[in-house]
Task: structure prediction
Amino acid sequence: MSSKPSPVSPLAPTTYPDLPPVAGIRLATAQAGIRYSGRTDVLYVGLEPGTRAAGVFTRSKCPSAPVDWCRDALANGSARALVVNSGNANAFTGRLGREAVALTAKIAAEAAGCAEDEVYIASTGVIGEPLPAERFEGVLADCVGRAQDGAAAWTEAARAIMTTDTFPKLATREATIGGTSVRINGIAKGAGMIAPDMATMLAFVFTDAALSRGAAQALLAQGANDSFNCVTVDGDTSTSDTLMLFATGKAGNAEVARADDPALAGFKAALDDLLIELAQLVARDGEGARKFVTVKVGGAESDASAHRIALSIANSPLVKTAVAGEDANWGRVVMAVGKAGEPADRDRLAIWFGDVRVAVDGARDPSYSEEAASDVMRRPEVEIRVDLGLGTGKARVWTCDLTKGYIEINGDYRS
Amino acid sequence: MSSKPSPVSPLAPTTYPDLPPVAGIRLATAQAGIRYSGRTDVLYVGLEPGTRAAGVFTRSKCPSAPVDWCRDALANGSARALVVNSGNANAFTGRLGREAVALTAKIAAEAAGCAEDEVYIASTGVIGEPLPAERFEGVLADCVGRAQDGAAAWTEAARAIMTTDTFPKLATREATIGGTSVRINGIAKGAGMIAPDMATMLAFVFTDAALSRGAAQALLAQGANDSFNCVTVDGDTSTSDTLMLFATGKAGNAEVARADDPALAGFKAALDDLLIELAQLVARDGEGARKFVTVKVGGAESDASAHRIALSIANSPLVKTAVAGEDANWGRVVMAVGKAGEPADRDRLAIWFGDVRVAVDGARDPSYSEEAASDVMRRPEVEIRVDLGLGTGKARVWTCDLTKGYIEINGDYRS
Result:
């Protein structure tokens, strides 16, 4: 299969950031010929000794072989290499799948000169096809020799892990820990089978900060809750969702042991912000997306209840097609609130599209202007806001519209 | 809005049954000009004195005003008239909505010569617009005068309640109770915002059998579980879902008090069968449907678990688009099993498309023929079967594929 020449999402950023080097990280990409032709499909990331790893993974009951591998490797927690391939998810591949990750780890460990359980592996692409891991032979050793830390290497890394993505997803932040400047770079890929929990299929974050394993894991898990766990494209949860954080410790700050240490406040804020940016980029590149949608729910009985209602709205095919049709169809928002099964009182509901209140007290807003609402719906970014009028619980999630493009991409993915 | 001239679903029955008269039931339709022009939009059903009513309704937390009305009226349980309109759901219409059902009941009660709480009301169509119930004035009285019991009246009834449906949905059965022949007629409409529980937006079943209120309610609730609660089009639950059973008692059988009375065995079987036929017709007319899909799950830890997994598969946009693309993409079935959150062991899973086993023991079936699977996918009716290999729980649900037609219909519904 050659990757389909899809036009870039209209919601793509107009420019991509140049990512600065992160001390202790070097990257290289290659064409291993896993599935695609004429494009890179392998990313190798070399990590200096002392790098700590943290990870958050799909909650699918049928996770991919690489997810199983990473979960096991995290028991060690030391990291020297990350290998990511696109084109084949190595999911639901049984014994062959386990053999493929083991072989990948062996090849990478030999190339990087580390232990096999210091290698992390992620795969994305088609499910159920055996992964020909022997194709990494030679390729990864070559990557080790070529690995770079410049901006071009980061951009190439983000491109190599794309599947149906129409643009590479990169973000960078700076922070200080105890007076020492640290950097955080992140890359991610979508673009379908995107739902909490986890949302993105693959995202990798790298920092030169020195963090304990516990602090890294806690920061990542907390950050995921308000970012990747708040984005949905189609409500379908991947078998392969992987979010990892690698901290090389090369910035020179004194290692911080606990995530709630005040010394990490600035770092945590920067990390959270970067995770949100990456998560939003995934929604902006949702398959077939023409509109970026923010759903905000307030006045719920609890934050958790608000979150479930927001996801019910964001996952509703009828709401998403209405947005695609630029139709301020708030009746479908009512429907989605009602079907969430959460506490709601029809007669206290209020609904806004952008800043136009279209419904209040359980009925159409008497002063509602169809024209003003239509203006909102024509924009590339649409906010849907619901106030339940019951309590103080709130949540916000991001999604995109549901268009014929989604059907086109997914009705003809394998062939 | 004029109703869109959509071609009839390719999954429609080739012929529609002629429904026989049901003693005690007379029907008439009219054009009240609620929303559509050039087509009927009101159904009036006159019910002879002594008719008992039973109902099962949406579990939405934001039900429509007619659903609230019917739930209240069922406390009485005696029925003399049913009024159904299409074009406007009278949902999320606040005080105006309550006034509209009250006015409808008043007009119908005067026309039929009965009490207002003997009138049942259902509405389907757009949400959030006030229903101009005053347009029923004169119309319903005229219907009372014109009501018929012939086959044409039944077909017209099924047509008057359609919204985005492309064909009328009718079914009929016969049974005996204690040696007395009884008839059961049913009509239903879909065709989007279809998900358990309930599945169909509106379905009405009429019988001349004499049943106690308790027996009627129990039979209907049980029957709904294995029919309408097993069909999904888009996972979106309507605010208006209504399934009602009216039993006139005019067949002359001795009234049966309890649903589990052996005298009702044949009637129950016939009713269940009719409900399944109607539910399947709803899936066959799912918005944009080109394929009718049966999902069977076996080997689950319980029937309830199997049901949730089957719905996860049937509601997955990625599975549904794969079916639309005639792609035997069983990896997406694995994904949908995994995301259901129910007990599942990846390495025991087996998956079939039709009679072609494509996966076994957590990997591709070694003897799997892509060609044979493709043959199955090209048919208009596709069965997806999953064996979890864990226990004896099983379930089956019906759905349809997800096509560009769905997007087209729903991206431009209100305008």
Observations:
- The two ends of chain B are 7 Å apart (CA to CA).
- Confidence is low (pLDDT under 50) at residues 1-5, 196-200 of chain B.
